[in-house]
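Please predict the structure of the following assembly.
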Amino acid sequence: QQQVKQSPQSLIVQKGGIPIINCAYENTAFDYFPWYQQFPGKGPALLIAIRPDVSEKKEGRFTISFNKSAKQFSLHIMDSQPGDSATYFCAARSGGGADGLTFGKGTHLIIQP
Amino acid sequence: DVKVTQSSRYLVKRTGEKVFLECVQDMDHENMFWYRQDPGLGLRLIYFSYDVKMKEKGDIPEGYSVSREKKERFSLILESASTNQTSMYLCASSLRQGDGYTFGSGTRLTVV
């Protein structure tokens, strides 16, 4: 059973556009929701994370929106640049970290110049 | 910056071989993890460890074992490699439970 569902699988956006990647979960025990960015040949790197006591978090051009009642969260990239082209993974964790992260299947994002 | 180093970038092994994948972190992190990454399946947790000589099964432990004899080193062992274990293997560490992960660059294993 997939615990974190991520969509879309791939996304192409023009430079300056706002790509949006969505994730949904079922496990109400999840209490930490990070996003990771992965470039080819590299391991994933933590981009931004949110806990369910807030509905939005911004770091630079990256924003997480969180809807606890709908059990959904999304990543928005403002003023997207070709350098943002990468694979993005959402993830979730429960139990204060007692278990490992559960990842979505990833979104391959391309920002066209 | 924390560094997580995986000993090999690419490995080719034969079916039935015993395979060792090594991971070392240099910042005294308590927690270490092994994931495999496959196209369309994302990252799936194989095993993790919160302390020396301690291990916990993840979501897909079958066919794998791990060893953590020292705090900085976490080894993934494929007891008898099979072709369906061809994958990218990623090691990660975190300082404490609840912290974000630092990943290594991965080992791409091909079993022929």
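Chain B touches chain A at residues 4, 31, 33, 35, 40-45, 48, 58-59, 90, 92, 94, 96-106 (CB under 8 Å). The mean pLDDT of chain B is 93.
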